[in-house]
Amino acid sequence: FCAFPCPTPILTLAINLRSLKRVHPHVIPNCEDFDDPTKFDEYNASFRKDLGFREDDLLIVQPTRIVRRKRIEDSLELVHRLLQQYPDIRSRVHYIISLYQGDELDKNYVEEIQEIARQKDIPLHLIHDRVSSVRSQNEQGQKIYTNRDVLANADLITYLPIWEGFGNALLETIARKTAGYHHLSGLQNRYQGHRPGSGGDTGYVRRFRAAGYPR
How distant is the alpha carbon of residue 209 from its chain centre? Predict the structure, then answer.
């Protein structure tokens, strides 16, 4: 199994196995079952209430770990500009980061993100303690949700990584048919002849209705 960018040793191992052992290994990419996409169901229907959000709140989700290559500061700038354009929704907007740091610990980056959110007056929620790979309960009897459950409750999803450009977060957003803004330079570099220095952001922000955003 391999996320992008795939480590060279994994590709080298696959090539060696094919040539020396006459087997044909596959490097499995990020993937999504579009026949069974992330959906709103009985379990995750309580997500908003459990985490203190109102039903009419607008949840903007960063469905990634808190690492520098995810460019979370740029996502916060996007939210900031959205609030500047639609000031009447400010009281309803919440920015959620669903995952933890993992093996790329950088306490300074977490603090930087918190400070940026404070300066831009964006309610920031780090909810990794309520998110896991499987649904369960914690020691207090509270529901533990999956990242897919968080996405099912999202009104807008941000995904602006430096490296990946394409991965599970993008595929799950497309499958969920949720409004999203994505950084796709990885696809441009491979398929569209993207030139260094010409800028890497493409994507869309589906029309975000300030008054009564449809759920």
Answer: 21
Token reading at 5: 């960018």
Cα–Cα distances (Å) from 38 to 24, 30, 35, 156, 185, in that order, read 32, 15, 10, 14, 25
Report the alpha-carbon distance of residue 174 to residue 180 in Å, rounded. 8
- pLDDT of 165-207, one tens digit each? 556 777 777 776 655 555 544 433 333 333 333 333 333 333 3
Hey, which residues does 159 pair with through a beta bridge? 182
Q: Are 181 and 201 in contact (CB under 8 A)?
A: no
Asked if 176 contacts 37 with a C-beta cutoff of 8 angstroms, the reply is yes
Instruction: State the DSSP string of the chain.
Output: --PSSPPHHHHHHHHHHHHHS------------TTS-----TTGGGHHHHTT--TT-EEEEE-S-S-GGG-HHHHHHHHHHHHHH-GGGGGGEEEEE-S--TTS--HHHHHHHHHHHHHTT--EEE-GGGB-SS-EE-TTS-EEB-HHHHHHT-SEEEE--SS-SSSHHHHHHHHHT-EEEE--HHHIIIII-PPTTS-----------SSS---
The model carries a pTM of: 0.71
